Amino acid sequence: MKRLGTQTIKLENPVSIIDTASIVGKKEGEGPLASYFDYILEDEYWGEKSFEKTESKILYETINKVLQKSKKTSSDINYILAGDLLNQCISSAYAIRDTNIPFLGLYGACSTMVESLSLGAILIDGGFANNVIAVTSSHFCTAERQFRFPLELGSQRPQTSQWTVTGSGASVLSNDGSGPKITTITTGKIIDMGIKDANNMGAAMAGAATDTIFTHFNETCRNIDYYDLIVTGDLGHIGSNLTNNMLNKIGVNIEQKFTDCGILIFDKEKQDTHAGGSGCGCCASVFSGYLYKKLKEREINKLLLIATGALMSTTIVQQGESIPGIAHAISIENL
Amino acid sequence: MKRLGTQTIKLENPVSIIDTASIVGKKEGEGPLASYFDYILEDEYWGEKSFEKTESKILYETINKVLQKSKKTSSDINYILAGDLLNQCISSAYAIRDTNIPFLGLYGACSTMVESLSLGAILIDGGFANNVIAVTSSHFCTAERQFRFPLELGSQRPQTSQWTVTGSGASVLSNDGSGPKITTITTGKIIDMGIKDANNMGAAMAGAATDTIFTHFNETCRNIDYYDLIVTGDLGHIGSNLTNNMLNKIGVNIEQKFTDCGILIFDKEKQDTHAGGSGCGCCASVFSGYLYKKLKEREINKLLLIATGALMSTTIVQQGESIPGIAHAISIENL
């Protein structure tokens, strides 16, 4: 029986993540994880004429990098699963246009990295694919001007705001080859905490993170000790605290094992990002850069990775709606 | 062996579409398929204060209708796969927020209906789910003001433009129960024909449709006679003609069996929609309303359904980029 509960499945044949790649922006390259990334940009443009084209180039080059590192060619890849934050997911579409790989487009806001890893693992475990790429991206400048204010305004950012990571992360999943394996998948439901502030994404996503983490432990019958590390996608400082508190209230204490990609990627004291990092590229680059290497080196052997997304749209928030959140979780283990 | 070629897989256990539901707008309810839809709106708002909220309500009520028709409750559904045209897929997110079903968000523009049916069938055939809902929506007023001009401008529409369908269609896929079955899946690649005109979606998508249809026949080793009907998602009149012509040039003549959801849904002479219907809701409602009933009544026994999407974004088109297209195909058969 593959199904452990309403939201959790266990793969019959755990799926290997045979390699990963990550490319990040200048600011991310000045942070504590700098040495883990494959390439660090020198400026916001990377030779392109618009930030959107830059973001698409980052995603495209991350795909090339992961193909090269995993010694695969695009013809080895059966599906590419991708999405991003931009309207109509253009970073992904324009990057993948040039790859000649069958494409399944996803949208899960910042939860997209784990959504793509989940569906990629399902395609392989189900026998539908041999090799799959899961990839996402974000860019501070594209996200800020799409979701908040024109950059030229130089608007002051409130303390609850998170800094959208400029970066991309890609994984090659395979039914053949070694590497840490995806073993269980907990797919999230949409949870709305009633938050209406587009500058407080952490709070908007905390309810979904809490729900998915609680459900994962409940349905797998695992206890916190099972994992070496529990890492959320990009709740940042405020969302992580809220998640900790809410989980505590329902009797789950993960604090000792818990951190967040949005906390890890920037230096809280020196980099002035307020509530931490966010964006599809945050979870993608921190997982593909830092966490994957820790798994490969067996400093971590059992990881619970939960990517959280705020399903925010300026149009409907301006119409008075709150911002719903979603969180998808996967366990990645050295078996 | 499940894999028939680079882009096509054959399901080991074909997946039943046990029921469908469709809700459409007033104009669609005045067209030739009126009698096939479950519910027809009386105006553009359906009691909501914005077109976006109306579109989300249409999608939500279509989910309720398909649950009711298939005699399922939301707790029977393991996953809901959905997406739409609006920025950050808000019609889907806000509708599904209230369903309590694990959610996998998709973005494939107007190809989303077949993308969701494809992934839904994969989840079931792979043993990951018993029941899945695949659903999408669109609304003329939300799409027009997001992608083109404010409605209040009353801009004249060029003859190449298509009319975004107001409507939604949903299917319940199941491993238990009767109904027409999804048997093969051909996942598309992104194809860019260099079209830069946001009012000529048919031309932008024709290349992708041609590629996927050609690949499907090539990889399944089927000939045109195998199918009773070959229906594209929403190429409309112009895109369908282009697809026919391009297929003819590479030696594939589907003309006798070929039509398009965007052609079927409106009366070309009386309804003044220029190049025909479009939007995620076009393929979704025509399949869920009209084609599914024809399959159930065995007037059609073998259908090739190809949903086509123009991966268009105003931002990047304004930056001078062309509009890439994608097309996903499934065969649906009475076995």
In a nutshell, what does this entry contain?
Chain A is α/β, with parallel strands linked by helices and 335 residues long.
Descriptive account of the structure:
The first copy, chain A, is an alpha/beta fold and 335 residues long. Chain A folds into 2 domains: 13-174, Peroxisomal Thiolase, Chain A, domain 1, CATH 3.40.47.40; 181-333, Stage V sporulation protein AD (Peroxisomal Thiolase, Chain A, domain 1). Helix content of chain A is 32%, strand content 24%. Chain A is built from 9 helices and 14 strands. In chain A, strands 1, 2, 3, 4, 5, 7, 8, 9, 10, 11, 13 and 14 form a 12-stranded mixed beta sheet that branches. In chain A, strands 6-12 form a two-stranded parallel ribbon. In chain A, strand 10, helix 6 and strand 11 (258-260) form a beta-alpha-beta unit. In chain A, helix 1 (51-69) packs across helix 2 (90-96) and helix 5 (201-220) packs across helix 6. The model of chain A has no long low-confidence stretch (mean pLDDT 97). Chains A and B meet through helix 2, strand 4, helix 3 and helix 9 of A and helix 2, strand 4, helix 3 and helix 9 of B.
